[in-house]
Amino acid sequence: MKLYYSPGACSLSPHIVLREAGLPFDLSLASTKTKKLADGSDFLEVNAKGQVPVLELDDGARLTEGPVIVQYLADQKPESGLAPKAGTMERYRLMEWLNFITSELHKSYSPLFNPAMPEEGKAVYRARIADRLQWVDSQLAGKDYLLGAQFSVADAYLFTVSNWSGYVGIDMSGYKNLAAYRERVAARPAVKAALEAEGLNK
Ligand SMILES: N[C@@H](CCC(=O)N[C@@H](CS)C(=O)NCC(=O)O)C(=O)O
């Protein structure tokens, strides 16, 4: 398998999952700005949406959309416990989290990276993110991970997205449960290895 990624972008989530699952993979660097790969070839040929992550399977098939990719990866290694079994209520709880993270958090952070977004617009998104993070913080009370004691693909995604806070001026000091959770996730060997491979300190 090959993961097309950009350092620190949402592709860090499937990158962490690949390592957590112990699956063999290669990384291919894609620029989300120039839409070029490291060898100068056209990333739009790989994904016409011009976005990471893209997972390329060994038969050449390509899968896009992070929340789907991480479930595909988890299902390749059910014994990893990274996703509850398909069809169970627990699996729907996982999908509930993935959908929340993608629609309420990920796509609220995205405009903060957009130079074309005016400051007044950014303030609206910052307030929205603060509101959602407050709720996430409440949900983490007394829990190690989003689904409870077991680390799941939703944790890889929440860790990745909440990691952007420092870059876009989101104050995280008010979220004590989230802070402890982020430390817990950051301490996992697979997470450390993924961050290091992408050239990120933490
Ligand atoms: N719906 C996609 C969104 C992916 C996405 O937003 N990727 C960003 C990086 S975090 C990207 O490639 N942005 C470049 C662009 O949109 O042109 C998913 O969930 O995978």
UniProtKB/TrEMBL annotation:
<dbReference type="InterPro" id="IPR010987">
    <property type="entry name" value="Glutathione-S-Trfase_C-like"/>
</dbReference>
<dbReference type="Pfam" id="PF13409">
    <property type="entry name" value="GST_N_2"/>
</dbReference>
<dbReference type="InterPro" id="IPR036249">
    <property type="entry name" value="Thioredoxin-like_sf"/>
</dbReference>
<dbReference type="InterPro" id="IPR040079">
    <property type="entry name" value="Glutathione_S-Trfase"/>
</dbReference>
<dbReference type="Pfam" id="PF00043">
    <property type="entry name" value="GST_C"/>
</dbReference>
<dbReference type="InterPro" id="IPR004046">
    <property type="entry name" value="GST_C"/>
</dbReference>
<dbReference type="InterPro" id="IPR004045">
    <property type="entry name" value="Glutathione_S-Trfase_N"/>
</dbReference>
<feature type="domain" description="GST N-terminal">
    <location>
        <begin position="1"/>
        <end position="81"/>
    </location>
</feature>
<protein>
    <submittedName>
        <fullName>Glutathione transferase GstA</fullName>
        <ecNumber>2.5.1.18</ecNumber>
    </submittedName>
</protein>
<keyword id="KW-0808">Transferase</keyword>
<feature type="domain" description="GST C-terminal">
    <location>
        <begin position="87"/>
        <end position="202"/>
    </location>
</feature>
<dbReference type="InterPro" id="IPR036282">
    <property type="entry name" value="Glutathione-S-Trfase_C_sf"/>
</dbReference>
<dbReference type="GO" id="GO:0004364">
    <property type="term" value="F:glutathione transferase activity"/>
</dbReference>
